[in-house]
Amino acid sequence: MSEKLAKLVEELSTLSVLEAADLVKMLEEKWGVSAAAPVAMAAAAAVAAEPVEEKTEFDVVIKDPGAKKIDVIKVIRQLTSLGLGEAKALAETAGGKILTGVGKDAAADAKKKLDEAGANIVIE
After folding, report:
1. Less crowded by CB within 10 Å, the N or C end of the chain?
2. pLDDT tens for residues 88-111?
3. Which three-class secondary structure string do you get for 36-93?
4. Contact indicator for 61, 96 with CB cutoff of 8 Å
5. What letters, b where the CB count within 10 A reaches 16 and e where it falls short, cover 79-116?
């Protein structure tokens, strides 16, 4: 640090809290900047740096049974053990949840089977 900056730091260290606040206001007005912006940016960066908890439970949702509705109903019955009427009703309900709260692998496996049967499936 240069001698000039060291002297400035020494002088600023003698200010009271109220004097320091007044100095900040004066500098903001003189230079047309805000001292709060870097603090807000640092806070936003700290929040963004927190790790996001990975989802562990998924829902398998049917969007459209496709052209091979009978094949889709068969797969739904295999996955859920529902009766024929219940599986048919579920296959015909857009947004119907075939499986709820299952693991990632089980959801991916169910999606694969239903896709192969001709259904349009999403994992939520």
Report:
1. N
2. 888 888 888 888 888 888 889 888
3. HHHHHHHHHHHHHHCCCCCCCCEEEEEEECCCCHHHHHHHHHHHHCCCHHHHHHHHCC
4. yes
5. beebeeeebbebbeeeeeebbeebeeeebeebbebbee
